[in-house]
Each structure stands twice: as C-alpha cells, then as structure tokens.
Amino acid sequence: MSDSYADEAVIRRVLLDSRTWAFVGLRDNPGRTAYDMAGVLRSRGKTIVPVHPAAETVLGEPGVPSLAGVPGRVDVVGVYRRAEHAGAVADEAITLFAAYGPRRDDEVRAVWFPLDVVDEAAARRVRDAGIDVVMDRCPAIEWARLRLPR
C-alpha cells in the first residue's frame, strides 16, 4: 500500500476539524477496537454514531442499522469492518456524502479505514468521488503522533 492514503495534512484536518463520526461496525462491546476508538474520539469532543444492523446504543449514543439511517450530517465514516467488507461500506459512504450536495471548502468529508483495513480499490473510488481517505491508520495513534490537543 502506498502512503497516498496517509497524508499528514488530511489526517490532521480530519481529526481536528471533524465533528461527527459514523462508526460502521460499532457495537456495545468494549473488547472491540471500534468501541475503543469511538470512546477516544468522543473524549475529544466528537459526536459518534454507531452504525450496525443491531442498532445498539453505544457509549450513550443510539445506533442506526445503516449509513442511510444516520440522522443529520456526518463528517467522517469510520470503516470498522473486515477488509473484505470495506468496499461496500465505502460505496455507501460515497452515496451518503453525495446526498449532501457540493462540498464546501471548510467542510470535512472523509472515510477512515483503520489499521489492517486495506482496500485500495475502495479507497480510489472514495477519492475519485472527491472525499478524503485515510487508510491503515489508527485515529488514537495519529492523534498522539501529531501531538494534537486533547
């Protein structure tokens, strides 16, 4: 995988300027990475939206069964599914963001593929749709590495 999906400026902007993250694959299971990352980002002021067919409430936030059911706007779609499912989630994210209309200059729109979730074809489709992509990176690690404020 190339570093083209780990642009430091993009990572910094996504982490600092985003407000709402939809976590696809998030369930009320503290043993899962998605749960940990949702907690970390929530502690840093982000609103999280759990997206899972079970639509469980996680960290006090009501879940929805799909990205299409997310109320309001999201800035980032986190793909917390196995890599073989990442492409379908990426395509749903493209559809979601397209429904928002043209992107404003100050608006964050991104799809974040965490560590070990690598699908270069999906990432290319997302980027070709004008959406920022971060792939094979952990939000918590990047937050610390960039020394961002808590």
UniProtKB/TrEMBL annotation:
It comes from the Bacteria. Pfam families: CoA_binding_2 (PF13380). Transmembrane segments: none annotated. This is CoA-binding protein. Residues 15-100 form the CoA-binding domain.
